[in-house]
Design goal:
- With 257 residues, this protein is of the alpha/beta class.
- It has one domain: Rossmann fold (3-Layer(aba) Sandwich).
- The protein has helices spanning 24-35, 47-59, 74-88, 111-120, 122-139, 160-180, 198-206, 208-218, 224-235, and strands at 15-19, 39-43, 63-66, 93-96, 142-147, 185-192, 246-249.
Length: 257
């Protein structure tokens, strides 16, 4: 369980929904929000990983519930949002952290590769925001935090499907923030650089282009907890005046302003 400083971020009693909670970043985010007093709903496909995460959170004194789902299904996402509201009465915070990274040379990537990435990233974020916004608007408040990635601004030739979806997530989130900012909704994006995880190591090992870049990439690698800290802060009242931003989280590696 993630430990937190002896300070309140004002998240106690909040209800957070984390999609992609079985991944390295999503699980760290869920633990962090729970450690700061939020009740966290854990969603993803891997019931075993989610149950283990729930145990970790509850054993540390936090509150976590499961809603296993396939986020590429509009019906499943919609029904999950309704069930969370039915049981918890609200959804204050939505965190999207799903992805299926497709690496490879552009000419080798198929329509299916692009469609899979589109459905598992951008459209998951569209579905989940569409599902929670009515509840947030009725309450007059809500925080949405979408995880994109550095490749949304700095293209990687071996990661064009994912980078394209990240760029779309950046624009989508800004559009949502502009549309609903006068109605108590804040929507922000976090764009991490490479994050240490078994998934990243596996991708680096399987793709020659990534492997070749690995020494420089690994030098600026962050941790899932780095992302989790940023999410908790953006979700808190301390970030009440931040809306529509793309927060780079790459240790200063981005060579632009």
């Amino acid at each position: 369980m993630i430990s937190t400083p002896n300070m309140s971020l004002g998240l106690t009693g909040q209800c957070a929904w984390v999609l992609g909670a079985s991944g390295a970043i999503g699980s760290a985010v869920a633990e962090m929000l729970a450690a700061h007093g939020a009740t966290v709903w854990l969603s993803g496909r891997d019931k075993i990983k989610l149950a283990a995460l729930q145990d970790t959170i509850t054993q540390a004194g936090g509150q976590a519930r499961l809603r296993v789902l396939d986020a590429t299904s509009t019906d499943e996402v919609t029904h999950a949002a309704r069930e969370i509201v039915r049981q918890s009465g609200k959804i204050n915070i939505l965190v999207n952290s799903t992805a299926t990274s497709t690496f490879g040379d552009f000419l080798d990537l198929t329509d299916e590769d692009w469609e899979k990435t589109f459905q598992s990233k951008l459209m998951v974020y569209v579905r989940s925001m569409r599902a929670v916004l009515p509840t947030m608007l009725k309450a007059g408040s809500g925080v949405i935090i979408n995880i994109s990635g550095r490749a949304g601004k700095l293209p990687s030739p071996a990661h064009l499907p994912g980078g394209s979806m990240n760029a779309a997530v950046n624009l989508l989130t800004k559009g949502i923030s502009d549309r609903y900012k006068g109605q108590g909704i804040r929507a922000n994006t976090i764009a991490p650089g490479p994050i240490a995880s078994a998934r990243f190591d596996a991708l680096a090992a399987q793709d020659s282009a990534i492997t070749a870049a690995k020494p420089s990439v690994m030098a600026t690698q962050g941790s899932p907890q780095d992302v989790a800290h940023a999410v908790a802060w953006l979700a808190s009242p301390f970030a009440a005046h931040l809306n529509g931003i793309v927060l780079p989280l790459d240790g200063g590696a981005t060579p632009t302003v």
